[in-house]
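Hi all, long-time lurker, first post. I run a small reading group and we've been trying to get comfortable going from sequence to structure in the token notation. Rather than ask abstract questions, I figured I'd post a concrete chain and ask someone more experienced to write out its structure so we can walk through it together at our next meeting. Sequence below, copied exactly:
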Amino acid sequence: MKTDSRIVWDMDLINRYDLSGPRYTSYPTAVQFDPNLSSTSLVSQGQSTADRSAPLSLYVHIPFCAHVCYYCACNKVITRNRDRAQPYLDTVYREMEQLSQWYSDDRLVDQLHWGGGTPTFISDEQMFELMSALRKNFNLRNDDQGDYSIEIDPREASPNTLEVLRKAGFNRISLGVQDLDQKVQEAVNRVQPLEQTQAS
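-- Answer (accepted) --
Happy to help. Here is the structure in token form:
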């Protein structure tokens, strides 16, 4: 039996994302790097220029990867030792608490993104713990109206990963696919068969 493989385009969804979004691949964003700006000045400038009535966009960086992808220039730690994640997360929680005092003012978080590295490197329990810490320190939405997104490496996704992510509060995922040609995958050290991606 042949299945219908036609692509159905959701024009409402396309129109919703047909605009420039935040650049959250680095913080501060690359265009704002200034070697003369001290950490104290950075915080002061951030506080003085923040629109206290505007919603927040948050980015959480999970730098760990079990495998190195040769094309990747992101800040990352290559390790298979999953125990390295908790000390990092504990530091993130302390920073989160400080940042919420500086910038939050109970502002609604309309955009949340976890990137990496490989965010699904951390355990399911750590994902719930991290989302709980975010909810404690920031005003996260509960109505699915915001964009709460996470990057997924299908090689790091178990059969129940999407269910866990949905329970944690995500409503959007980004699947990492560099190329479908196996020779290219081997060249960039990212062997990821199409079937594995489709399963995710």
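A couple of things your group might point at:
The longest helix spans residues 85-103.
The two ends are 23 Å apart (CA to CA).
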